[in-house]
Amino acid sequence: MIAAPELQTDFHYPQDTDTRFSSDTDFDDPDGRSAVQGKGKVKKGKKAPGEKGKGAGKGAGRLNGHHQENGMENVMLFEVVKLGKSAMQSVVDDWIESYKHDRDTALLDLINFFIQCSGCKGVVSGEMFRHMQNSEIIRKMTEEFDEDSGDYPLTMAGPQWKKFKSSFCEFIGVLVRQCQYSIIYDEYMMDTVISLLTGLSDSQVRAFRHTSTLAAMKLMTALVNVALNLSINMDNTQRQYEAERNKMIGKRANDRLELLLQKRKELQENQDEIENMMNAIFKGVFVHRYRDAIAEIRAICIEEIGVWMKMYSDAFLNDSYLKYVGWTLHDKQGEVRLKCLTALQGLYYNRELNAKLELFTSRFKDRIVSMTLDKEYDVAVQAIKLLTLVLHSSDEVLTAEDCESVYHLVYSAHRPVAVAAGEFLFKKLFSHRDIEDDSMPKRRGRQSLNANLIKTTVFFFLESELHEHAAYLVDSMWDCASELLKDWECMISLLLDEPLPGEEALTDRQETALIEIMLCTIRQAAECHPPVGRGTGKRVLTAKEKKTQLDDRTRMTELFAVALPPLLAKYSVDAEKVTNLLQLPQFFDLEIYTTGRLEKHLESLLRQIREIVEKHTDTDVLEACSKTYHALCSEEFTIFNRVDIARSQLLDELVDKFNRLLEDFLQEGEDPDEDDAYQVLSTLKRITAFHNAHDLSKWDLFTSNYKLLNTGIENGDMPEQIVIHALQCTHYVILWHLAKVSEGSCKKEDMVTLRKQMRAFCLMCQRYLASVNTAVKEQAFTILCDLLMIFSHQIISGGREILEPLVYTPEASLQSELLSFILDHVFIDQDEDNNSTGLDDEAGKIEALHKRRNLLAAYCKLIIYNVVEMNTGADIFKQYMRYYNDYGDIIKETMSKTRQIDKIQCAKTLILSLQQLFNEMLSDLGPGFDRSSSAFCGIKELARRFSLTFGLDQLKTREAIAMLHKDGIEFAFKEPNPQGEGYPPLNLAFLDILSEFSSKLMRQDKRTVHMYLERFMTFQMALQREDCWLPLISYRNSLQAGGDDDTMSVVSGISSRGSTIRNKKPKPVTGKRKLSEGTTSLTIVWLNRDQSMQTPVMMPSPHLTSTVMRDTKRLRPEDSYMGVYTMPPEQQQPQPPPQHHAPPQTPQPHHHQTPLDYNRRGSGLMEDDEEPIVEDVMMSSEGRIEDLNEGMDFDTMDIDLPASKNRRERSELKPDFFDPASIMDESVRTTHFLGYDAFQR
């Protein structure tokens, strides 16, 4: 620690670095209204009379804040650095020249530079510098802050201010570097600067604290570099001294020995001074600021200590300094945790430092492993990279459990996390090669070095039982192991060649996995983008990537054009393997078949595909064959004719066979042969699969399929699979016909034919909705919804008016049948569905739910696009609460879309759904039901949910809400009580449900709705007070509440933030006038409903007293856990009691995170839009973390540079034992983090 008497100015270090402001430094603005200067504008410093220092005449004209001789002011040092146009070397040299002439004036410029870099308008004068104390100057500068902004240069946006931060740091580094040989040892300049920065870093002003901490840390970094150079020079001097002393006496130069001794003594003294300076910065700034309340400040400290440990590892890389990084791994802010990890990466990268990191690794390894699941993806990525470096340094540090926790992250949906995990996996499992292997000649095929690595990849994929996404695994390892993954020659050899003697052959399951991985690698190489669900989409490839892509496509085509036919021949009976293999031609460069003279291999491929079509009836295999033909039948390639002929021959045979089998099958009547049925089904499956991707219109499949479907309706005993595929095939016929007609070159007869076929097919599907078979009904329903969407009124949009004759509007009977299907097959309990389908396993339940969701979504699309009447949605909306977990998102989105189309009709549909539920309840419970019953409460809760969907903007939903109340009132009084007028109407209780929407009415509309309600009421109704009339009373009061209170009306555009104290400006009169005028038209429409209706004289009904009182001021959400920072006892100074002291909040456990106690110190709550200038600077210090300290060396915090060779023993500085309990709360040690987001099907 530098002693105060050594300073030649009153601006000195505080005796105790832990002290806070004394009572005489309290700010005049305790509420923090003095915001920090945000525009970067500073006042020009004016010199007081007699302030001109020594040598000012020679220094005039330099960019250091001096006056010029002609009386004009120069640009200040802050402006020079901010502009960044001058070389920093010349700027510093100018300042050093000025310092040599007049060090007081130059130091004053430097002090003002730091003040202005903090965004303060104030300027420290020479008088203040000479006569005022440290704390007094800081308080004076605090008063100079701009009140209108909370920004300061380090936080301002824009390229200029981003450059300013780097220029600011560069200035400090260059300043120390240029002064390292003389000025920093003059016991004046550095003492003054360190004292200033220490005082500013202890300020409660964020701008001062942030700026000075950054400056102090960069100053420390520069001093560490100086100390390192001194250490090197001392070692060199010592070596020279010993070499000279070991010479023979006759050859020894005594003068040189004395000179070397003197030089070593001088270097030792300089090093001692540097140590004192670094100790002052470390104890005065770092120890307090690394646990600052502001995350940016904590991040600066951790980033710089990482630089010190890496730059001067002999002095700083020990447990006394590593502990700060280890503790801060538990920081609650992701950016601070990120700095910890990057700092550690720089240390673990150097293998020579591993020995010094052993204890740290053992203490904090578990924490680093847990951070791979951090909620911040950037932190998780860096944690994985750090573990990769740890793994690279030593294989024994990480246990198998540690590695497994990283392995499964290769399946994460977040690509950077997955790529980092892929690199870790590659380092662990694939990078261990024997030295002998590298010296051996390169072999190809299954004898290559990659063969075992590819097998290891397959084994790993199969062992990951929870994941079946080979594409994700390949993408994760693509960046680090692309050479391995693109060794397709080795993969082909493993599949086709016989195993070597003594080599174990791949099992069937391993071969399936290898083929899947091989397909994924080919897709990745050909498409050059991540799989679906990982990444934001296709990106523009660079020239190098495009060349690599073309080269890979060429190589894969040359390899697999030859290898694919024998692979298909070997695995032709295995459906899963064949399906994957048949996808390979989609990624080929087909021109190579011609240029490479590979036509014979193409013929072999077409022959194999034909045989597979004849062997298989599996839908996936047939569709893969169809897509392969489609990929090969591209007219731009010369192989088109050859493939087209093969395809036509295959389809001719299939269609002829189908027509022949169908004729025989239909002639058999009601008792068809099972073999004939199977033949018809298998052929129909093949035709349907090909019709999906190929136009088969010339074979006229509509007639035969329609005849088949018609026979099924008449006889009722058609096998369900035949009906399902016949419906699908006919659907494809209609769509291909529409595609031809849409081209515009068709004849009028084609349009008429399509219209007839489409309507006949829709009628056929409607008839099949009444089938007894569920699968058939689902297929018919899905196709009907698709056809109604395709041939709706939107078919003529986009300039396609020629298609208007094809528009098909479903009749009421069809709409009713579609709705009945949804109610019978979608809104059912899970148990009922399981009993009907026989699904007991969890996967079956999920699949069944997925199917039902698709059915509901298909029908909801008809509602959204106005294909069916919107009021049919009432039967859907009323299921919102009951089936919220299964279909809540679909129903809510449907309500949102219908509201965008027609707000009023949507509101009518919502109230209709509530009315239907109310009628159902009446039929079940009878008129005298209990309003506390679960059924009635459920309807009220549904109404509340509906009300919430209208949002906060009452102007946008004004008419819709009014119409909703109108329909609700009419429904409530629709059914009179058969017992007489003295009894409430049967539906009167519906008003209790309707009251849930009263809060959405504007004040003016509440009066109008109340007047409309009175038209239905008699004089006797107004006098009733029995329980049965309570719905009417409560509804009336909900309409009258706030009717005369302007504050109860929420106007569009006023946010919740506007309700704070600071927004007490009177609302413009024009706004109220507009609202009042807007009520007129609505009132006229309502009151003209029935001119003959007499409005009885109403007695004023009593208002219900609201139990909800409006707060005059609301806290922000974050204020609920912000209060007074709890200061350690040794850091707290006596202060006057605050006027508004927020009690500390007790942290409540939530998942893996327990928040810190935040207690704000001040005299009142801060306004919502204002950044507090005076704030607390230390994190909570309650709790203990001795378990983190166990085994760590915490003897001293003093910086003690290591002794050079034969260095004299130095007395240790006074130990300063550090209490780790003041670092952070115990609760921070378990940081809230989220698991990886693995892709799920």
Question: Could you explain the architecture of this structure?
Answer:
- The chain contains 48 helices and no strands.
- Mean pLDDT is 77; it is low at 1-74, 434-441, 835-839, 1043-1197 and 1204-1241.
- Helix 21 (470-485) crosses helix 23 (508-527).
- The chain is mostly helical and 1241 residues long.
- Helix content is 56%, strand content 0%.
- One of its GO terms (molecular function) is chromatin binding.
- Residues 1134-1147 have a biased composition (Pro residues).
- Part of the cohesin complex which is composed of a heterodimer between a SMC1 protein (SMC1A or SMC1B) and SMC3, which are attached via their hinge domain, and RAD21 which link them at their heads, and one STAG protein.
- Keywords: Cell cycle, Cell division, Chromosome, Chromosome partition, Coiled coil, Nucleus.
Terminal-residue CA separation: 63 Å
Task: Provide the residue-averaged pLDDT.
Answer: 77
Roughly what percent helix?
55-70%
Low-confidence stretches: 1-74, 434-441, 835-839, 1043-1197, 1204-1241
Give a topology summary.
Blueprint: H1 56-59, H2 77-83, H3 88-101, H4 103-117, H5 126-131, H6 134-142, H7 159-179, H8 189-201, H9 206-245, H10 254-289, H11 295-311, H12 313-316, H13 319-328, H14 334-348, H15 358-370, H16 377-393, H17 400-407, H18 415-430, H19 435-439, H20 450-463, H21 470-485, H22 488-496, H23 508-527, H24 543-570, H25 575-581, H26 592-595, H27 599-615, H28 619-632, H29 640-667, H30 674-693, H31 701-715, H32 720-742, H33 748-768, H34 774-790, H35 812-825, H36 830-837, H37 842-864, H38 874-877, H39 884-901, H40 903-925, H41 934-948, H42 958-972, H43 990-994, H44 1003-1016, H45 1019-1023, H46 1030-1040, H47 1069-1087, H48 1186-1189
